[in-house]
Write a structure and sequence with these properties.
Number of helices: 9
Number of strands: 8
Strand content: 5-15%
Protein name: MHYT domain-containing protein
Structural class: mainly alpha
Pfam family, one: MHYT
Organism: Streptomyces pseudovenezuelae
Strand order of the largest sheet: 1-2
Helix content: 55-70%
Order of helices and strands: EHHEEHHEEHHEHHHEE
Number of domains: 1
Radius of gyration: 31 Å
Shape: elongated
Largest sheet: 2 strands, antiparallel
Keywords: Membrane, Transmembrane, Transmembrane helix
Oligomer: single chain
């Protein structure tokens, strides 16, 4: 029996929340990558790792928030906790590979293409690994053509995001790029979900490991969500990202060219020494006053 698949159980709540989390992760990741480009003296590996973790957590959180709204009317759905956590690790690690390629090898068309393919395949792997964590009393089937389309969307979105990270420096333009990235990533998810059909088994038999969506996904989403908030605090209070490239350079240049001041001579008035002319009758010689 074919199951009735519904991806919008709670209406627009889960798609909108999923989109916002994808935008948040993308925005933080792009700003972290921009941070490594603005200053060569920064802790590059740390900022790239933070950017990769932000993008990976944003994509993973987007996926499972959207999956809260997924249901098959004829059967209950549960999730395998191990595969769910593994999908998060895959997202962060594979996105990190793409980010580090661009961060250390440059943004040439070849590097961007290779990093975009790797990152896009990682996003797709996270999605379908997360789908493998889904257990129900039935068989999940996929439309191969739609699956291929979702992978292409993931690769294009990842390449565009990496290109934006190394090309766009301004805050507002980075924000716009993250909004577009959120559309692409969320669109990839729902494109992949449109490929899903479920053949429900007869009867109510069948057992599987894992918890229900409400008991498993919500607590697991709390950790990545808190991480994204903390990453946002780090990015917001970084002086280079707050001031911008031009203001930071002007501040640094002023600090380098300003003459050093001795605190011992601060707040002292300049002294003026008046010398008497030699023809002054009261001029003193080394041997005493003249007679």
């Amino acid at each position: 029996m074919e199951g009735t698949v519904d991806g919008f159980r709670y209406g627009a709540v889960t798609p909108v929340a999923a989109y916002l989390m994808a935008c948040l992760g993308g925005a933080l990741g792009l700003r972290c990558i921009v941070r490594t480009l603005l200053s060569t003296q920064s802790w590059k590996a740390g900022w790239l790792a933070l950017g990769a973790a932000s993008i990976g957590c944003g994509i993973w959180t987007m996926h499972f928030i959207a999956m809260i709204g997924f249901q098959v009317v004829e059967t209950r759905i549960r999730y395998d906790a191990g595969l769910t956590v593994l999908s998060l690790a895959v997202a962060v690690v594979v996105v990190g590979i793409g980010v580090f390629i661009v961060g250390y090898r440059g943004a040439s068309p070849l590097n961007l293409s290779f990093a975009g393919v790797v990152t896009g395949l990682g996003v797709a792997a996270m999605h379908y690994l997360g789908m493998a964590a889904l257990h129900l009393n039935g068989t999940i089937r996929y439309d191969a053509a739609v699956v291929a389309l979702s992978v292409v969307i993931a690769i294009v979105a990842a390449t565009a995001a990496l290109w934006a990270a190394v090309t766009i420096r301004g805050f507002l333009t980075s924000l716009g790029a993250s909004l577009i990235m959120g559309v692409a990533v969320t669109g990839m998810h729902y494109t992949g979900m449109s490929a899903v059909s479920v053949h429900v088994h007869d009867g109510t038999g069948g057992s599987w490991a894992g918890g229900s969506p409400s008991s498993l996904l919500l607590p697991m989403l709390l950790g990545p969500a808190i991480f994204l908030l903390l990453a946002g605090v780090v990015v917001m209070f970084d002086p280079l990202l707050v001031l911008g490239d031009g203001e930071w350079n002007r501040t640094s240049a002023t600090a380098r060219t300003a003459p050093p001041s001795d605190p011992a001579f601060e707040d002292q008035e300049p002294r003026v020494i008046h010398a008497r002319a030699p023809q002054d009758p009261h001029w003193a010689t080394p041997h005493g006053p003249s007679r």
